[in-house]
Amino acid sequence: MLKRFPGRVGIWCLKRPELRRTKCALYSASGAYLSDRSYHERRENSNENFSKRRVVGVVGVGASFLLGIYGYRYLKDDRRQVSSTEELDEEVASYSGKPGGRIDGLPTYKMADVAKHSSAEKRLWVTYKEGVYDITDFVDSHPGGDAILMAVGSALEPFWNLYAVHKTPQVTKLLEQYRIGNLDPAEAKENAEGHDPYHADPSRDPELVPSNKKPFNAEPLPERLIENYITPTEYFYVRNHLPVPVVDLSNYAIEIEGPGIKSTSLTLEELKKMPKHTITATVMCAGNRRSEMSQVKEVKGLYWGPSAIGNATWSGVKLSELLEKIGFDESTNEALHVQFEGLDLTPESNPYGGSIPIEKAVDPKGDVILAYEMNGKPLTRDHGYPVRVIAPGIVGARCVKWLNRIVLSKEESPAFWQRRDYKGFSPNVTAETAKWDEAAAIEELPVISAICVPSKHDHVHVNDDSTVTVRGYAWSGGGRPIIRVDVTSDGGDRWVEAELVEKSDARPGRHWSWTLWEVKVPVTASQNQVELWAKAVDSSYNVQPESFKHIWNIRGVLNNAYHRVPINLVR
Amino acid sequence: MLKRFPGRVGIWCLKRPELRRTKCALYSASGAYLSDRSYHERRENSNENFSKRRVVGVVGVGASFLLGIYGYRYLKDDRRQVSSTEELDEEVASYSGKPGGRIDGLPTYKMADVAKHSSAEKRLWVTYKEGVYDITDFVDSHPGGDAILMAVGSALEPFWNLYAVHKTPQVTKLLEQYRIGNLDPAEAKENAEGHDPYHADPSRDPELVPSNKKPFNAEPLPERLIENYITPTEYFYVRNHLPVPVVDLSNYAIEIEGPGIKSTSLTLEELKKMPKHTITATVMCAGNRRSEMSQVKEVKGLYWGPSAIGNATWSGVKLSELLEKIGFDESTNEALHVQFEGLDLTPESNPYGGSIPIEKAVDPKGDVILAYEMNGKPLTRDHGYPVRVIAPGIVGARCVKWLNRIVLSKEESPAFWQRRDYKGFSPNVTAETAKWDEAAAIEELPVISAICVPSKHDHVHVNDDSTVTVRGYAWSGGGRPIIRVDVTSDGGDRWVEAELVEKSDARPGRHWSWTLWEVKVPVTASQNQVELWAKAVDSSYNVQPESFKHIWNIRGVLNNAYHRVPINLVR
């Protein structure tokens, strides 16, 4: 099982002078690892029994903290040569104590003692229940360099409440390898009493099939997705990275700051007094269709199907107008990026964040909106109430929800999700060799399409004219309209152009909406099975790549290879 | 051989009331058809003997006029059932007369008689030397619909001088099938005395390897191409569609007109008084690398290698500033396109033309330049002296040379090259099924790369570290920078990231220059041959498609599949 939890984990950093280094959060905030349940399994489950739709997947968010230790200690540490993952599994399994339980004969510490051990010189300690652990050796030589744990000098429980993937016997047993003492029982009880950080999450529509519940991530069934050109809010995909914040409007205001502008604080009411703009724009997760890429080789992240995308109308204030109003002058301003921070917080109270290039933000034709309405109604909590960013043509991860702060800067957002996530890599780059600082953050997305009807392995009725009817969507980033969708049932010997049945008439460069298409694809009389392929072409004549093999990447993002759907034919 | 000359040909149209229909020029102005000589053959020839570099290929421009008749008459006419191309070849070969020679017993006509036969009612006649021909039957049922010949009622010689591909025994023999009479010998002599329309073309540098000489089209050798980040003017590829016009500066002025602007005429001197801007931008032909696509199935057009691209500095006036100066107001102006016309003319005195979207033209960051300097010196005649358009990030075909006229319009340029050429189609679209009016004109180009060193079938020295050194270029349209180039020697089992050795630091959206790259790719000790593949990724994370099969198109444009170069290893 070890292979499924790579030792390298994502990080983000805070300057912590007491550590004499930058302190970094060590986790993959980008998604749970669904070890046992693929997208298609989820989908089938959902089909079989609608009432079971809210299946409990393997809950949790990402390879993280001790998973990192787990992989690293056993694979890299010279002192322990482990020849196989089976050996490791055995070793971990052989631990028979109760994780975090009191062990007689070990010294007892207070949290105050533990807190002193949060610098390299004084060793790095953490606690879990009644256990105290020294993880210094790991931290000093961690492959992620300065990827130090946010939790050093404190308790693990708040992290593990947030990223529930840790709550497995393997992880807790492994932790015991680092055991050095016992924690004062009263303090251990206090640490354990952390509430579920997701307790205030909203209820969701049963149309949404979750790939993860904490944080909540879910998509509709593909055939439902393309029923409407404007995706109804209730089954617009949800991609949360953290618990949904509870916003008190009486305290809510967006702070805006940066060089050359007047620092400003805007309540929702003040925002609504500015000119209101409405755009129709598709928003898509960088991980959409990841379950297909994972067929080549496993990747990190939520195993999305093809429905982590939606098209909605968004109303709010144009960022370009707001910035102009508070004094932004492009000819003199040195800012290169506009950073956004959400109200959703990590255990260390660091906000979710992302940034977009300044050119996009200040271009009136870039149509970046601080949206307070979705499909004509106030944003729902899952979609960012009261205000979120809509940066059309750009990856969903930058469309920061529960918007709290806007910062103009020469630098991209320092947030984990901008610096250590949502980047593409060459297929042969591994977690160990990835040069995160050199890779480009995903902003504009490439051209993509998907077949939504039929679904994989469906039994499909052959039309009288020896065709099957195929329907789906296509979209491209950067405001580039879709100019063509080709579909084949014979491996591309005969491509058939789809009819673009619903699309926007917006001009290239400002064409933010998806295109819905339909086509009747000929099938040979003798065939009982065929594999449908779809590919789209955008106005720059960029086309989808053929297969996942050559675009595979460690994070499983940018899954825009031809969509291939094997089906059974029924006559 | 017939298959090589499809019956369908490109057209452009003039309203000719006397024909009671639109009169159309019937030709492919976009390039010669090299039936016998591929790019690599040209290249090898060039390598073998530099002095023979200016090889005379199969000269001419496009499938055209009688080639259209040729294909159509024999394939479609019910009266003649030809079972194979061999049969047709035999039939044509059996004609033993002298094409255009006098045939006793036929009536003799004057040009004035022929001119009367230029309407559907009065039959459609043409002449060639002393021959008079009635091509009505073909014209009435031509698969191109209203694709009537520009030459009806007149002599063919001016067309054939311009598009020398007609001057083959096959075409002239075929013409005799339509023979109805003899032309007055004195008038025939007059017709024959037309001068070579290319007589005033400039001399060219021997570094340029022509794929066609009339009109002149040539590219440098790939290894020469990437020697410089800024391509020297003398071997910057040349893609002319017509003879190079002779420009008299004392008569030269650019006319600008359209709704909502002050009609303006600007001499070069006046242009130079406006603020001068310099940009560095790559210009590429839509047909670059076409010789590779033709390996899948033959395509129409010049068989370019990978060097129909170059990167230069361009200085001149910003179109956005010029338009603003003469009153353009985007908030009220209804124009959607900016059309350009060159001084290069067809036999019927129609100019070469193309257009770009208005948004590109009026955006100061779009950097569209009316350039009068290339690499710091006045434009050469081959590159558009005195003024050409540089629309960076957009296909070379819209960067109109010898600029004569600018028209703002709701419509795209009516020119052949905008409406009936330089468009992409689905692989299964044929000349007969192509819906030209529905297809999108190529503007922004997709991401592309090429391996320039080594070349196909080169014997390459293996480095001491068991690698081979590979170098090339990569580029993308729309101002999108290249963020990565991957190269493999084993079919993509192991991709190696190239170093981006020379590139611009311009921001995304305004990144007009190419990127030069270099990489050492590992090769297995036991291999004597490998095939190198290269693919690039741009800032929108669009990536090149894998193979030509699924992007093949009738016009052989947008040849951006992985560049695949088989080489021999030398140790």
TrEMBL record, chains A, B:
<keyword id="KW-0560">Oxidoreductase</keyword>
<feature type="compositionally biased region" description="Basic and acidic residues">
    <location>
        <begin position="189"/>
        <end position="207"/>
    </location>
</feature>
<dbReference type="Pfam" id="PF03404">
    <property type="entry name" value="Mo-co_dimer"/>
</dbReference>
<dbReference type="InterPro" id="IPR005066">
    <property type="entry name" value="MoCF_OxRdtse_dimer"/>
</dbReference>
<comment type="subunit">
    <text>Homodimer.</text>
</comment>
<keyword id="KW-0472">Membrane</keyword>
<dbReference type="InterPro" id="IPR036374">
    <property type="entry name" value="OxRdtase_Mopterin-bd_sf"/>
</dbReference>
<keyword id="KW-0812">Transmembrane</keyword>
<feature type="region of interest" description="Disordered">
    <location>
        <begin position="189"/>
        <end position="208"/>
    </location>
</feature>
<keyword id="KW-0479">Metal-binding</keyword>
<protein>
    <recommendedName>
        <fullName>sulfite oxidase</fullName>
        <ecNumber>1.8.3.1</ecNumber>
    </recommendedName>
</protein>
<keyword id="KW-1133">Transmembrane helix</keyword>
<dbReference type="InterPro" id="IPR001199">
    <property type="entry name" value="Cyt_B5-like_heme/steroid-bd"/>
</dbReference>
<comment type="pathway">
    <text>Sulfur metabolism.</text>
</comment>
<dbReference type="InterPro" id="IPR000572">
    <property type="entry name" value="OxRdtase_Mopterin-bd_dom"/>
</dbReference>
<keyword id="KW-0500">Molybdenum</keyword>
<keyword id="KW-0408">Iron</keyword>
<dbReference type="InterPro" id="IPR036400">
    <property type="entry name" value="Cyt_B5-like_heme/steroid_sf"/>
</dbReference>
<dbReference type="InterPro" id="IPR008335">
    <property type="entry name" value="Mopterin_OxRdtase_euk"/>
</dbReference>
<comment type="pathway">
    <text>Energy metabolism; sulfur metabolism.</text>
</comment>
<dbReference type="Pfam" id="PF00173">
    <property type="entry name" value="Cyt-b5"/>
</dbReference>
<keyword id="KW-0349">Heme</keyword>
<feature type="domain" description="Cytochrome b5 heme-binding">
    <location>
        <begin position="106"/>
        <end position="184"/>
    </location>
</feature>
<dbReference type="InterPro" id="IPR022407">
    <property type="entry name" value="OxRdtase_Mopterin_BS"/>
</dbReference>
<dbReference type="InterPro" id="IPR014756">
    <property type="entry name" value="Ig_E-set"/>
</dbReference>
<dbReference type="Pfam" id="PF00174">
    <property type="entry name" value="Oxidored_molyb"/>
</dbReference>
<dbReference type="InterPro" id="IPR018506">
    <property type="entry name" value="Cyt_B5_heme-BS"/>
</dbReference>
<feature type="transmembrane region" description="Helical">
    <location>
        <begin position="55"/>
        <end position="75"/>
    </location>
</feature>
